Amino acid sequence: MEPTEGDIPAASPANPTPVPTPPANAIVAPTDTTVAPVPDADPQNTSEVIAPTPSFTWEASEYVFHQKPATWYLALWVATALLSGGLGLMHQWLSIIVVVVMALAVMVYSRKEPRTLTYALDGQGISIDGKLSSYHLFKSYSAHEEVSWREIDLEPARRFAPRLTVLCEVENFDTIEEILTQHLPRVDRDPDWIEKLTRYIKF
């Protein structure tokens, strides 16, 4: 059977299949043979290394203790008698009992000598005899210079929470402050009237 017009002849060694050629005005995209560079499997670490917070341990008194003379206790009971007499004129009998009980508590507490505690500062917080208080419990600290020691007050972050007071020797203050400033800002404050009164009467 003879091939008719429009038939495509089969490919053979003697008659290869013609390769189509693009038109003259066609744009042929070049073949990209560039090999992308492979990044190093273990690049050099150039991030900044943050040094860990150092730790420091010291021993100090629980609070400042003043040895009180007999005249101090005499003045305490004279003030208690005068206050009780004024309350008696107003028939405030319950208030008189409260004043007398408070005077007894002050006398007992004023004779109690403080303990020597072990303090420690590190990256987590401040420890007092092994009990840790984290830095997030405080918002700032202040320092007061005394004669032979430094008094550091840690201001609580929660409202109505008690302020934490820490004592240290003068030669240890710079090391302690260096650690504290990494976690809390220093905000010095003036003593309130209660602190001024207790310092004045050496309580």
Question: For this structure, what is the CATH class of the largest domain?
Answer: Mainly Beta
Oligomer: single chain
Category by helix and strand content:
alpha+beta
Distance between the termini: 129 Å
* Beta-strand share of residues: 15-25%
Average pLDDT works out at: 79
User: Which fold name corresponds to the CATH topology of the largest domain?
Assistant: PH-domain like
- Number of DSSP strands? 7
CATH H level, superfamily name of the largest domain: Pleckstrin-homology domain (PH domain)/Phosphotyrosine-binding domain (PTB)
Q: How would you sum up the global shape?
A: elongated
Element order, helices and strands?
EHHEEEEEEHH
Number of helices: 4
Rounded to an integer in angstroms, the radius of gyration calculated over CA atoms is 42 Å
- CATH structural architecture of the largest domain: Roll
Number of domains: 2
Low-confidence stretches: 1-13
Order of the strands making up the biggest sheet: 1-2-3-4
Reported for the largest beta sheet, the result is: 4 strands, antiparallel
How helix-rich are the residues, as a percent range?
25-40%
